[in-house]
Write a structure and sequence with these properties.
This protein is α/β, with parallel strands linked by helices. The protein folds into 2 domains: 126 residues, abc type-2 transporter like fold (3-Layer(aba) Sandwich); 198 residues, no CATH class. It has 14 helices and 5 strands. Helix 6 links the parallel strand 4 and strand 5. Helix 7 runs antiparallel to helix 11. The two termini are 50 Å apart.
């Protein structure tokens, strides 16, 4: 019995080692996922990009702002000249927080008046927004208590006669209630398009090869580019159907409002799909079986989920993981989706995400067409 068992095991090992491509992916994937999850996902929320509009420009306002930078929760990214500029910077995604110091900051504190400091927070990412709101309020309260303590020491007055000198006024933009589903639905659109376009495209072509029908198509008058377009267009239509269904479910069931232009969203989805469909075709050209296509597609998709900011905010990833995210199209598309669906912004604010997405999409799609044609010749 043992001899028969070992013979079967020996046969299976031979099959495994005859397919080094699949074996390599299977062995590398757990290690790469472990490194990604441990290195990128386990990051703390800190150094949140922040803009400041200091209308007082006095020593006490500068000291107060310095307390934000000392905590490591906030990092000064821009100094704005108006509240509208801060709003624009948040719309563009340059900063996540904007701090607005009112004029006469030091004079009002000296006169015993209460100073209200407005904090604008980008609510499109609920994780960062919650940390930013808590940290800003804590800094404001701690500073107010410090000022009250100094006044009590000087005048000997009781706490009842004093008001809190600093009152933080956080304002959550785009997602006032910090509902996680509002931030999740836009990102899900990108994930659905990515998964569907890559998996289904790569499987469809490999399946034709496994069944022997691809060779039958080659000997017909159908040209390679016609064959490729005929294969990918149905998946484009299905992808658009899923975008509509996702938005409809988000609105009617979860109450997620659509703030921007649907036409712009669908147009930019085509740009994103160029790269995703091209990636699927490339996978199909290097895969001999559906199992290989499945492993390669997973190897492409899983890092994209992590490094694109879908699971954790990119702003808080280690430097290497953060810059690696720029090589992933889903990173740019997530920003586009949140910008259109949640913020309602247009190309004036989205162009810096659209340009690299278009370059990647066109380059990958052209490369996939050339390689696909070469494999059919």
């Amino acid at each position: 019995m043992l001899s028969r068992l070992f013979a079967i095991m020996h046969k299976e090992f031979i099959h495994i080692f005859r397919d080094p491509q699949t074996l390599g992916i299977v062995l590398i994937m757990p290690i790469s996922m472990l490194l990604l999850m441990g290195y990128a996902v386990a990051a703390d929320i800190d150094h949140i990009p922040t803009a400041v509009f200091d209308q007082a420009m006095d020593s006490q306002s500068r000291d107060f702002l310095e307390k934000f930078w000392q905590t490591d929760f906030f990092e000064l990214e821009r100094t704005a000249r108006s509240q509208q500029e801060i709003q624009d910077l948040i719309d563009e995604g340059v900063v996540r927080v904007g701090i607005i110091i009112p004029p006469g900051f030091a004079a009002d504190l000296e006169a015993g008046k209460q100073v209200q400091v407005q904090v604008l927070i980008d609510g499109s990412d609920t994780t960062i927004a919650q940390v930013a709101q808590f940290a800003a309020e804590s800094i404001g309260q701690a500073t107010a208590v410090e000022i009250v303590g100094i006044k009590i020491g000087k005048s000997g007055a009781g706490l009842a006669s004093l008001v809190m000198p600093i009152l933080m006024r956080p304002r959550l933009l785009y997602n006032p209630n910090l509902d996680k589903v509002n931030a999740l639905i836009p990102s899900l659109i990108g994930m659905i398009l990515q998964f569907q376009s890559i998996f289904l495209t790569s499987f469809a072509i490999v399946r034709e090869r496994e069944q022997g029908t691809l060779e039958q198509l080659i000997v017909t008058p159908v040209k390679p580019w016609e064959l490729m377009i005929g294969k990918v267009v149905p998946f484009v239509l299905l992808a658009f159907l899923n975008v509509g269904l996702t938005l409809a479910v988000g609105y009617f069931i979860f109450g997620v409002e659509f703030s921007g232009s649907l036409t712009l969203l669908l147009t930019l989805s085509i740009v994103f799909l160029l790269g995703s469909l091209g990636t699927g075709v490339l996978i199909s050209t290097v895969s001999r079986t559906q199992m290989q296509a499945n492993h390669l597609a997973s190897f492409v998709l899983l890092p994209a989920i992590i490094l694109s900011g879908f699971l954790v905010p990119r702003d808080n990833m280690p430097t290497l993981a953060y810059y690696a995210g720029y090589l992933i199209p889903l990173t740019y598309f997530n920003e586009i989706l949140r910008g259109i669906v949640m913020k309602g912004v247009g190309m004036a604010f989205l162009w810096k995400h659209v340009v690299p997405l278009a370059i990647f999409g066109i380059a990958v799609f052209v490369l996939s067409v050339l390689r696909f044609q070469k494999r059919l010749e």
